[in-house]
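Supplementary Methods S3. Complex input for the zinc ion-bound model.
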Amino acid sequence: MLGKSPAWQDAGGACSGYLIEEGDTALLLDCGNGVFAKLREHVDYTDVDAVVISHVHADHFIDLIPYAYALLLTPRQQPVPVAGHPGTADPARPRLIAPPGAEQTFKTVVGAWGDELLIDQAFLIEAYDASSEVQVGPLVATFAEVPHYVLTHAVTVRSTAGGGRFTFGADSRPAEELVEAARDADLLLIEATLPRPERTGIRGHLTPAEAGEHARRAGARRVVLTHISDELDAEWAREEGSNAFGGPVELAREGDAFEI
Ligand SMILES: [Zn+2]
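Predicted complex, serialized as structure tokens:
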């Protein structure tokens, strides 16, 4: 659990970012603001096999920028000896698995200061959609579109080496699609952004009670609320979520690890 904040970081925290490991394989799910520093506390960023992005809102992808600079500029990734590093003909270039259209968004963002190909050069970009089944080592990721302000997918990850089914609900307004995406999850990570439902405009997020209710309808076994600010009362959120789920839900905490 690298980052669980909503669109602005908790004090000392990070936005959406979850590290999934199986054996030597590492998959980073989302890379929001603050996540790159948290990633570095746990693994070598050149050892990450793939980054999967749920949707291109800043709090889910913006740290691809420092990550890309690291991959391109760090001395140990250079083809010639630099600063005591021997040089490499084979620099790490993790896969970047993102929704359709994301590549153009990346170009537009970094193109604002003339570095249009920054993310393209650092990563191997590939697009997924709701019909994709993406394999990263023993990990298999599948996707389900959920309604949010931009094209967004819930991501389910399982392993060919066994274990359970993990679903990350991404960001979503209350929706049957989210229930279906989370169906029978052994571990459901579900957003609980709001202290109360949005009062104007199109809805885009869930309250803790709505998150618990979706988890109950999905038959999820273990439920962790995420995308929740340290400015919301944690006890209140846990209680609201648990009452709606019909059992205890947990609150995401950075640094926590779960075995599935
Ligand atoms: Zn979002």
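Residues 234-245 form the longest helix (12 residues). The CA atoms of residues 133 and 223 lie 24 Å apart.
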